[in-house]
Structures are given as C-alpha cells and as structure tokens.
Design brief:
Elements (H helix, E strand, L loop, with lengths): L2 H33 L6 H8 L3 H7 L3 H12 L1 H7 L8 H21 L1 H13 L1 H27 L8 H20 L6 H16 L7
Helix pairs in contact: 1-2, 1-4, 4-7, 5-6, 6-9, 6-10, 7-8, 8-9, 9-10
C-alpha cells in the first residue's frame, strides 16, 4: 500500500469512527430516556445501534462514560460561554456576565429536563457519575474564581475570599439546577436575575451603575 492511498483512507476511517460514535450516543440517549439509568445496559445499546458490543467499548469506557458525554453535549453552550474570556471592565459587565451564566445553565437544563432527570438518577447510583459531576463543579468554580479575581484586582469587590465565593456560586447553581429539573422552579430567566442580584450585591461594593 503506497503512502498516498494510506493518507486517502485515514479520513474515511476517521469519518466512520465519528459516525459510529454519534450513532452510539444517539441510541444510548433514546434508551436512557426510555428505560432510565439503571435499566440501560451496554448490551442493549449495542443491539439497538446494531454495532458490536466491543465496538461500543472501543469508543466509550461504559454507560457512565456515555452518559457523561451526553451531559457534555447538553452543557456545551455553557462551556463555550465560560471559556470565551469576555472583556469585563465595569461592574455592570460583571453583573451581566454572571446573570448570563446562570440563565444559560438554567435554560439548558430546562430544555433538556428528561435527560437531566436520568442524570439525576445516575448521581444516586453511580460513584463515577457523582465524581464527574463534582469535577464539573470544581472546573466551574475555577472559571468563576478567575473572574472574581479579576474583579477584585479592579477594586470592584469587597474584601472576600474569591475561592470560597466562587464555590458558593457554583453550589448555588448546582442546587437550583436540580430545582429546575424537578420542576420546582418554572421561570429560569427570572430566577437567574434574582440569584445574580443576591450574589452580586453580597460581594461587590456598589450597584453596577457604571
């Protein structure tokens, strides 16, 4: 086999791999929604997707890994927002950003409530799922801490521990995420505005008029 043929075939294999991976994820999503977390198995996923049992494991570590990748897809807009590193130079810009973070998360979990309910079930039954959720909370805390550190350097905040404040913000979002999933909160945008006001005025020196 010459090198030209090898180069030509690599993209095809890569494309097939991506198609298979997506097929597995889409199929797993359907089964999770239909059967719930505990009743979903790799055997059921492989059978329904019409791919080999081993093929599923060549793409994922197991059903927990599959469910975590589904969660990543659900939260992709939030990840993109947090990673965008917007320029924040005034208190009002910080206020708007923090509100947008909350609103983005709350609207996403409301839109994807059925699969978030499955994830909530998984949190109770799987240590790996619980560990991944905690990992996400830690990463989220890191992001928020970086924004609070910048605000503190700009003399916009009170003299607070930014790490603990960021963790409090993350836990606040965690709690209300599941309130929305359980349909105990029906107005995500209003909730985001109210919680942002509570959080913001507890940390920042003055109202964001400038």
């Amino acid at each position: 086999m010459n090198s030209v043929t090898t180069v030509q075939r690599r993209p095809r294999r890569y494309l097939r791999s991506r198609i298979t991976r997506k097929l597995i994820l889409d199929t797993a999503m359907q089964i999770f929604l239909l059967e719930g977390y505990t009743k979903t198995t790799i055997a059921r996923i492989s059978e329904q997707a019409n791919v080999g049992y081993g093929t599923v494991y060549s793409h994922f570590k197991g059903k927990d890994d599959i469910l975590n990748r589904i969660l990543d897809h659900v939260l992709s807009d939030l990840y993109n927002l947090l990673g965008s590193q917007p320029e924040l130079s005034r208190p009002r810009e910080y206020y708007n950003f923090f509100q947008k973070v909350m609103q983005t998360l709350f609207l996403l979990v409301e839109e994807h409530r059925p699969i978030m309910n499955v994830y909530g079930e998984a949190l109770v039954h799987s240590e790996d799922i619980a560990a991944y959720w905690e990992e996400l909370l830690q990463k989220f805390t890191d992001y928020i801490e970086s924004y609070l550190d910048l605000a503190r350097r700009n003399n916009f905040t009170r003299n607070v521990n930014t790490r603990k404040s960021a963790r409090a913000y993350a836990l606040l979002l965690d709690r209300y995420t599941w309130e929305i999933v359980k349909e105990k909160e029906s107005k995500p945008e209003e909730l985001a505005q109210n919680l942002t006001s509570i959080f913001f005025y507890g940390i920042f020196k003055s109202q964001p008029t400038a």
